[in-house]
Amino acid sequence: MSPIDSDPALQDALGFAPEEAGRPNPLRWRNEPPMEGVFLNPAGQDGLTLLGLPSGLKPRRRMMLSSEVEAGPALKALAADLLAVLQDPPVGSETAIFDVAGLSPDDLSMLGEILGDGEVSIVAGTDPITQVSESTLTGVWRVRTETADGRTVGDQVEIGAVPRIVRAINLAGSPVPAPLPHPLEPEVMNAPPVIAEAFAKALEWTPGTPNHVINFTLMPMTPQDVALITHCLGQAPMLILSSGYGACRVVSSAVRRIWAVQYMNASGAIILDTLEIGDVPGAALAAEQDFEDSAKRLAQIMAAYL
What we know:
- The protein is α+β, with helices and mostly antiparallel strands and about 300 residues long.
- The chain has three domains: about 1-30, no CATH class; about 75-120 and about 135-160 and about 285-305, HupH hydrogenase expression protein, C-terminal domain (Ribosomal Protein S8, Chain: A, domain 1, 2-Layer Sandwich); about 170-285, 2-Layer Sandwich (Ribosomal Protein S8, Chain: A, domain 1).
- The chain has eight helices and ten strands.
- Strands 1-5-4-3-2-7-8-9-10-6 form a ten-stranded antiparallel sheet, with helices on both faces.
- Strand 2 (about 120-125) and strand 3 form a beta hairpin.
- Helix 3 runs antiparallel to helix 8 (about 290-305) and helix 6 (about 190-205) packs parallel to helix 7.
- It starts with a helix and ends with a helix.
């Protein structure tokens, strides 16, 4: 259990919102404004009751290593393995996973400093909860999993375009949307064709083809449309926040291959609100050239500190 979990005064000082189970949601903040957007905010209510995120991005942690720090043999071996994978990275949906739970506390601390915080953060699942931070080495992810009572049950470094859990949760969803209710409310306008289009494109999509995008930004939507889309598509327990293309929020629907993707300006207002159908949206993915850059940077870090 972390110090935050056991210290109400610290929770209050940090602004964590209390939860009924007595354990603060690590990504929900007191007085946080509700999420907005067609898919996320049905009828003006916060659709992310489980996985709230602060509307602003957290500051990134920069590497703070001292030249006097001495890495242990296990960390040096791990760094060498990470570099080898970055120089010949996994392709497509493949990833390489390294368990780091067995490292010494000093090596774990040094690993955290080496990796730092990158542009993408992910929270997935309910119990256990998996929290993922992309490192400053793009395509290298720190993946931690803990139970609802705060016990750590997994600590890994994963290399790939995106951690496996992202695709796994989406593909574990329903193959079809929930059926439309009958009769529809009179105020429903555009929801049925939007749901039909999203489902049809999800069935048609094949690996390697571009994702299909449905843009809500200029589409008239009544509150009843919003409620119907949210009801039929549902929401999987996963949220991705990226700052790589401006601020971008990606939510997996409960239907396979259908994602909600929202782009926000510096003040947190949504400027593009979409459904994206296909593979994991590009805003959450490391690109092929990123691995080459990360390999060069890791080699420099190893030469200087390891």
